[in-house]
Structures
1.
Amino acid sequence: MAEADFAGSTAHIIDWVGKERPSQAMLVTECSMASNVADAHPEVEFLGPCNMCPHMKKITLQKVLWSLHSMTGQVEVEPDIAAPARRAVQRMIDLSRWLAA
């Protein structure tokens, strides 16, 4: 990552490509994420591998719903990682409530 021009979330990568407007960019990410960036900027030639994440496709809405109903499938996250993630989720909840009002 130290050698990269930019590293970030899919949304941040889409924004960065939109601002910088490179003719070519290399993405090293999960395939569906690479597709999202490429779809947002068809004028850019994207190079590099996409990596199929064997775990990402295992998460489905049905499995999330089942886990919430049964309160099983506990995931433990370190507090220093959980705190910013909790803030992000809370902001999404707050925004959805604000938009619904």
2.
Amino acid sequence: MNRFIVIGITDNPTPFFPPEVLEVIQRGKVFSGGKRHHEIVAPLLPPDALWIDITVPLSKVFEQYQLSTVNCQLSTIIVFASGDPLFFGFANTLQREFPHSPMTVYPSFNSLQTLAHRLLLPYHDLRIVSLTGRPWHEFDRALIERAPKLGILTDREHTPATIAQRMLDYGYTDYTMHIGEHLGNPTLEKVTTLSLEEATQHEASMPNCLILHSPHSSHSPNLPQSPHFPQSSHSPHSSHSLFGLPDSEFSLLDGRAKMITKMPIRLLTLQALDLPNRHTLWDIGFCTGSVSIEARLLFPHLHIHAFEVRPECEAIIQENARRFHAPGINIHMGDFLSVCSDAIAAPDAVFIGGHGGRLKEILAKVKAVLADDGIIVFNSVVAPKVSIDSHRLWDEACTELGLRQEPPTKIQLNDHHPITILRCRK
């Protein structure tokens, strides 16, 4: 069984280690870390040290760990990692890969701690999001939930400039960005405070991290004064963006007011989907995107996939998502029955907003991927000009597919035709 000693280091080319750690290094035989780590600690390693570079794929690195300890008849591997190895660090990976191996960790400050100290910014309430090799979901969620102070770990795709542009695109303008580059390196370290507009033009060198800070936070006594960013009429801090989005403020398909799930119906639909207890929502036939957008704002933990066959609706949902500050909706264009869903996260909640007369086929495809006890909701409209009896199709499909129906909810708004909210479970 391997034993791991994981030592956190900064970008300083002449690192300081306490005597206990120096003794560990001097007695070591097998060492590992990134190429940059090797450059930093090479003068401190014993002459006969064996070094294993941490590169992808990690499976080959782990094979080298096993071989090296067998060949050296030793079980201890000393790993160098950036900052605090337990903070989105390599120690977490080792624990996952070698769950029964003993481990000792000697941490350093992580990059966000270092940046907060440079800014004299209290960070006990800092919300941490890692975008290093990760999608936007948790970052978008933090914005929707109005986190006043965000610490972001970046990578070459999620740069300070692209992060700032995303925030501006969706109207989250009321933040100042603090960028830390090469933190801990006495020659290259740089800390810059910028508005989001300025940050979109800033080319930050790697490695870097950033802290986003809103003036609404109560902890900003030592920070530079950030410029005032005027809020739009659809500000993410306005009350109507939190619950029940006004139908009149959506861009519509061909200006047709009937082509949107009305707000009261929309909220009842979301309630029927049991979204607080769901993980992934599919919105089939999104049209204006009103259901997806309302769900994204009310339940930002959700992963939402929206499907639509009409190509003109793609621009409409994108415009509405920006208008209501709802980043992170995954849009899939084309005939739903032809869309390959293998790479799309399986849903545990599905809303069918449009079916084009193929409700049975859609339900069959959904059932094949729906999680156990997953919920499907469909709104059936009773109107003289509607030639397809969608309620009858729903009943037949649920019976044929073995879907368990639950009591429907019937509602009529003003002079509109009655709507029945239908729900079933797998």
3.
Amino acid sequence: MGLTSYQHLEKRFKRIQILRSVTHLLRWDAEVMMPTGSGEVRAEQLSLLDTECSAILHSKKTLLLLDRAESSIDSYDDWQRANVREMRRICLCSNAIPKRLINSLQRATTKAEMRWRQAVEEKNFKLLLPHLQKVVDLVREKAGCLGNKLGCLPYDGLIQEYDPGRESREIDSIFQFLDSTLPALIDGVIEYQSNHPPIEIVKEIPIKKQKELGKFIMQRMGFPFHKGRLDESLHPFTEGTSEDIRITSKFSEHNFLTGFMGVLHETGHAMYDYALPSEWFFQAVGRDRGMTVHESQALFLEMIIGRSREFMKFAAPWISHKLGVVGAEWEPENLLRLANRVRKSFIRMDADEVTYPLHILLRYNLEKDLFSGKLLVKELPDAWNEEFKQRFGMTPENHNQGCLQDSHWPMGYFGYFPTYALGGIIASQLYQSMMSDQPEILPQIETGKFKPMFDWLDQKIYRFGAKFSCRELLVQATGEEINPKIFLGYLRKKYLNS
């Protein structure tokens, strides 16, 4: 008896997954190891891989098999039905974008990302401008294609890539709430914390020691070093699959918390990837449930657990031991105050938990203006500085403190930024639910036992892959949909004891 239509589809999507796993490694290499002069050929390599994946998704045979599989959907189990649904969603989005455009975007973003590095080194946006203009033009065309195919606004089409099922209308409502409540909270927390300022750390810490500390903490958390590694890059990121996870952080000799918290953030991503359902590894349903859920896992580990008193009591002795430091500034309570200090700063990656969403709101507004035609690419630095001054009362001193600080836009990741703020909200809801379900988990973290926490996350998030929508997953895990009021309450309790 021959293979069914569904089984043929599984074979095709397995091929796509393998090709994309190669893409992950090439992207990791471009950020970490690749010589600066190799950008042109890397763009061609990535373009070819994208072309091969697109050829499968655009194939008439694939679409015919999908039609046939859907006609027999009632005979499948829950996972298979969800897999077919995800296959259809992926095909629909892919087929909305012409092959020509896919190839052009891959080349343009690879070149722009390389030029972005140079622009950062020289703190000069003009070096990036023509390349970013090309990327924006192509992404604008892509957004129009997605909007037409999916029956939504062009910018919403971009959002769908990173957070399936989410629309800007819902995001606008959530962000308006944050915009109206966070500024007063930020001012209140800064005033409250001024009564108990932390002791500053002035000692410079060699990056080698910081990486050793990061690896040790990751090991204690259960990171699978036999299938992954930690490296250094200009911008922290996680690439790969559960079989080969590559994470990086950006380390600073002058501020060890930057690299340390970056390690925790990326470990949150990696542990989610590592624990996705292995039996569905090669299939669409075995992937993560979008970047909002992914960022919720990273921010949960970095912002909530990593900046908790229990975690600092566990980590402080190891920080002193691994870094070879002693003194009052390295005691748990002081490290806790340093990690949770709220202040208005220019760099998103260094931002505290309370001001962080405002950094995202700024980028979200600029993205919408870019894609509505209200804002030109060349106007981006001035528009950034103006919006930043309105929100934070400060003006960036150079482009690196402004619109050059993130690699997302050169890489074409428009529509991605909202997932950070939405992920932070979801992280607070997961925390509330976890503390209600198993309040003993935090005391266990103080003793270095992380498995109960990851087991809880596995039961609520990891094991389901893309079987459910983000809404269904969150309701199942916490009892309700995304709710910024819970996030605000969490912040008030943590930072104001109210």
